[in-house]
Amino acid sequence: MINVAKQKTGAVSFIHVCEAQSFSNTKPTVIFIHGFQSVKENNLHYAYLLAEKGFRVILPDCIHHGDRESGLRNHEMMQSFWEIVVQTVHEIDILKEYLLKEGLAAETDIGVAGTSMGGIVTFGALKKYPWIKAAVSLMGCPSYKDFARHKVEKFLEAGFVLPFDEMQLESYYAKLDPYDLSNDPTLLNERPLLCWHGKQDQEVPIDPLLTFVNDNKGYYKNKPNNIKVLIDDNADHKVSREGVLATVEWFAEHLHQNEEERYHAGSIKR
Fold first, then answer.
1. DSSP for 193-260?
2. pTM above 0.90, yes or no
3. Any residues with CB less than 8 A from the CB of 43 and at least 6 apart, and which?
4. pLDDT single digits (tens) 9-23
């Protein structure tokens, strides 16, 4: 049986999903981040499938979302996008510390994943935290500054007026440097990374991801199977069933499980 519990640590509310018999045991854990203007509950299907495989899954709400909704209007949410991304990167570390303190996970057995904004957060977390064992970015972008410029262009095309001048924007972009993995891909350190993207995606275009992976495959020369990109030629900004299952299998392959957990986890039914 799979247990689902709503919990909180500090200001971070989250859903905790795990097999009931081992709910309080130390076990491999995946922190899964939702997308922009989404909520943690929308990723329960990932959590259930991962829990069936023997993992603990933590689904947090990002600031201004879900249980932490703050009444921002749509354009205010858009202006807060990078604030949300950066704070969520920091809150991943808060969740990790909670897991260690409660004896729920070992620092060597924690993975991170996310969809859309959550996939972007995943790349920033990989730059900041060498303890992340494996990661999956679904519809994400590793190049923070390039994507920020892209979003500003789209914002202006939509007829909005930015409350910043060009100099302020450049200063704003510079603040993203500490989280921009494209500036220092060596920090991946050959850790397992799966990326899924729809070729028709207009929200988070695929090209920056492909450029990043093609430019940096050399950093995986000793472990070429640790980096993988799945492209759905027909998909737009929505993860396919195949992408969901690939996420689960990636963690099953790259996050440690002991023999007893492997025996009880079984296999996913398609």
1. EEEEEETT-SSS-SHHHHHHHHHHGGGGTT-GGGEEEEEETT--SS--HHHHHHHHHHHHHHS---HH
2. yes
3. 32, 34, 59, 115
4. 999 999 999 999 999
